[in-house]
Each structure stands twice: as C-alpha cells, then as structure tokens.
Amino acid sequence: MGSITATFHSDKDLTLVKATGKMTADDFHDYMVKYYAGKTTLLILWDLTKAGLSGLTTDEVRKIAQSTRKISDVRKGGKTALVFDKTLEYGMGRMFEAYSDIADMPFEFRAFKSIDDAKEWLGV
User: Fold this and answer.
1) What is the model's pTM?
2) Which end of the chain is more exposed for a tag (fewer CB within 10 A), N or C?
3) Do the Cβ atoms of 71 and 36 come closer than 8 Å?
4) At CB < 8 A and 24+ separation, what contacts does 15-20 make?
C-alpha cells in the first residue's frame, strides 16, 4: 500500500500531490474521494516519481479515470499534470490520459517525465 500527501498553494490555485510506495487502485480512489470532498484547486501536479504502479491493471486505470470523472466537475477548465521517471509508470500515465479523454473529463490531463516540464505546462 502506498501513501499520498498533498500541499496546497492557494496563491497559484495549485495542489502538489506526492505519491510514494507501491500504489493500489484503492489508494488513488480513496485519495480522490477525499480530495474532491474538500478544498480543490484548478491545477494539480502529481509527483509519481517515487511511486510504484506495476501492480495496477489496465482495467483499474480505466476505473480510476471513470470514478474521478463522476466527482470532478468542480475543476472544470483546470489542468492535471502527472510526472513519472520510469518508463512503465509513464506508460500507465499515458494510458490514464487516454482514459480521461474517453471519460470526457472537465479538465486536461497530461503525463510528463520531468517536474519542470509539468510546471511549465501548468504555468506555475
């Protein structure tokens, strides 16, 4: 089981989320439900460079995107950047990006291999 922590930067309307350890679909689902029930920001940067995603199945990635879509209207027009430093995890991020498009998310998702590139895309 992995862990997820968040830091809010209200001045930038940004949430920095850091995931560490071997992540499960439940880890992501539980965090998203908690996040969307509380304070949200238009911009989110997920640092997944210390997270292991190898235990996630393709179907679980799709379900995470679908369940996020159901609760995410409060971030309409926002952006979410996912940052990975390993090839397998980056591929999972690209898959999540595709599933998010299919789910018609009200905000943009993009996977990156560096935090600097993600910050540039987010404009922070």
Assistant:
1) 0.92
2) N
3) yes
4) 15/40, 15/41, 15/43, 15/44, 15/45, 16/44, 16/45, 16/47, 17/44, 17/45, 17/46, 17/47, 18/46, 18/47, 18/50, 19/46, 19/47, 19/48, 19/50, 19/51, 20/50, 20/51
Q: Please state which CATH number belongs to domain 3-122.
A: 3.30.750.24
Q: Which two tokens stand for residue 53?
A: 């995603």
**Residue 64: C-alpha distances to residues 10, 61, 115, 121 (Å):** 26, 5, 23, 23
Percent of the chain topping pLDDT 70: 100
Q: In the numeric block, which tokens belong to residue 89?
A: 């995890």
b/e map of 1-33 (b: 16 or more CB within 10 Å)?
ebebebeeeeebebbbbbbeeebbbebbeebbe
Model confidence pLDDT, tens digit, residues 29-65: 999 999 999 989 999 999 999 999 989 998 998 898 8
